[in-house]
């Protein structure tokens, strides 16, 4: 049971997300077809909260003594990511959001993608669909890479 809880928690951590959860779960003996949906679901849990509340919390905390530095960093990261995404995507913003979330590179993922969608005032339903599909894409990529890594070790 411990390996499932750790896999879920890892998948919910910002910056790590299911990119860490899937390899962790597979490495610790969870079948890939169980690890993938668990990690996807765990990765998606914070998404609605991020979309609706993160910007408000970050703006509120950006002028507080102890949280200013971190909250300002998060605001700038979200704004920068959102503007970069918008500039490159134009009308294909939701496809770009899907790819931004789905291609497992540092600084991308459901947390950053959702924050960027919120910062850009994108439509909630379309943003969530793009993020879910992006998480699925990232999950498939990480599952394949994890399985190849496990096979290479045996």
Short description:
The chain is built from 8 helices and no strands. The protein has helices spanning 2-12, 17-27, 32-44, 47-61, 68-89, 93-102, 110-119, 124-153.
Topology diagram in text:
Blueprint: H1 2-12, H2 17-27, H3 32-44, H4 47-61, H5 68-89, H6 93-102, H7 110-119, H8 124-153
Helix pairs in contact: 1-2, 1-3, 2-3, 2-8, 3-8, 4-5, 4-7, 5-6, 5-7, 6-7, 6-8, 7-8
Structural class estimated from helices and strands? mainly alpha
How many H/I helical runs? Answer: 8
Number of β-strand runs: 0
- The overall average pLDDT, rounded, is 90
Give the overall shape. Answer: globular
Total domain units:
1
Low-confidence region ranges: none
In sequence order, what are the helices and strands, one letter per element? HHHHHHHH
Share of helical residues? over 70%
Taking the alpha carbons of the first and last residues, their distance comes to: 25 Å
Strand content: under 5%
- Rounded Rg: 16 Å
Tell me about the biggest sheet?
Answer: none
């Amino acid at each position: 049971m411990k390996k499932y809880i750790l896999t879920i928690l890892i998948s919910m951590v910002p910056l790590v997300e299911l990119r860490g959860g899937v390899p962790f779960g597979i490495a610790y003996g969870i079948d890939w077809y169980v690890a993938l949906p668990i990690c996807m679901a765990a990765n998606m849990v914070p998404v609605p909260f991020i979309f609706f509340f993160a910007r408000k919390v970050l703006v509120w905390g950006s002028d507080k003594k102890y949280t200013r530095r971190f909250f300002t960093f998060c605001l700038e990261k979200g704004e920068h990511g959102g503007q970069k995404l918008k500039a490159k995507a134009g009308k294909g913003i939701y496809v770009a959001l899907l790819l931004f979330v789905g291609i497992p590179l540092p600084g991308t993922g459901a947390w950053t993608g959702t924050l960027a969608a919120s910062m850009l005032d994108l439509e909630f339903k379309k943003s969530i669909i793009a993020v879910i599909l992006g998480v699925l894409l990232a999950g498939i990529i990480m599952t394949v890479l994890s399985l190849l890594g496990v096979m290479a070790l045996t």
